[in-house]
Structures are given as C-alpha cells and as structure tokens.
Design goal:
The protein has 155 residues and is of the alpha/beta class. It has a single domain, classed as 3-Layer(aba) Sandwich (Aminopeptidase). It is built from four helices and six strands. It is globular, with a radius of gyration of 16 Å.
C-alpha cells in the first residue's frame, strides 16, 4: 500500500472513486445527498489550490482510498484566539479495502500535512454512526479533535 499526493494525472481515477462515494451517501442519507457524476472539476480545483490537497491510497496501481484535507482559519470572533487548522473534507475507502487500516494511513498523511504547515489541529465533521465509531477508535492515537456530531440539530 502506497500513500501519495494526488496530481492532475489522477483526476479520472479520483472522479470514479467520488462517484462511488456519492452514490453510497445518496443511498444511505437520501435526505442530504443525491447521486451525481463527478466531472473532474472538484478534484482539479483541490489539487491546484495551495490551501488543500488530496492524498491517495494506491494498491497495484489502483486508487483504493483518498483523503481531502484543507487549511482553514477561525473567523475573527472576539472570544476566540485566531488560529489555523486543517479540515478533513472527505475520507473515502473502497468497499473491498475497508477494515485494512487504509483510513488510518490516510489520516496519518493528513496529520503530517497539517504539522508541516504548522496548523494547530486536524478537524473532522462526521454524519454516520459507523464513521463516529471508526474515529473514536483511533482518536487518541492521532490526536483528533472532533468538534461536531451532526445528530444534534441546532435551532
């Protein structure tokens, strides 16, 4: 298993993986997601943007997972100390490769990325109970700060 930084040459493969992920989300949470085909614009914009990257998990020249990580900063609130942090936007592993530590490898790549940029922490928002269980299991080892559980609705 190799973890590598995505390039423009990877857009077609990333688009196929995104399509699979979007269909999966649409089936599970149809009230929030719909099935859609990835045109390639999304991964291209991430790759060329200086504040974000995609890391790929590659096995036998096939992309089997990815993580999209983005640099962000706190908006200017009087009660919060200004700081920068990394956000995990997407974490995808194909069905065949789940439960093989690929998610952890991708998270570690995002963690290194954020440390190289001197960001304060890595943030993740999640929506599904299975995702919550996965991250709760590895939270201590990678020093995650989980800030939002969307099962709680704010009014």
């Amino acid at each position: 298993m190799k973890i590598k930084l995505a390039t423009l040459n990877d857009i077609e493969s990333i688009s196929l993986l995104n399509h699979e992920f979007w269909c999966y989300n649409a089936d599970l949470q149809h009230e929030y997601y719909k099935k859609a085909k990835e045109s390639g614009d999304y991964p291209k914009n991430v790759i060329i943007n200086e504040d974000s990257d995609i890391f790929l998990a590659v096995e036998n020249d096939k992309i089997v997972g990815l993580i999209h990580v983005r640099e962000s900063q706190i908006l200017p609130y009087a009660s919060i100390v200004q700081h920068k942090y990394a956000e995990v936007i997407d974490l995808i592993v194909t069905e065949t490769y789940k439960r093989k530590c690929i998610g952890s490898l991708l998270i570690n790549a995002a963690k290194k990325w954020s440390k190289l940029r001197n960001l304060d922490y890595l943030e993740l928002f999640y929506q599904m109970p299975k995702v919550k269980l996965f991250f709760m299991n590895i939270m201590l080892s990678i020093q995650f700060r989980i800030l939002c559980d969307t099962k709680y609705k704010y009014t």
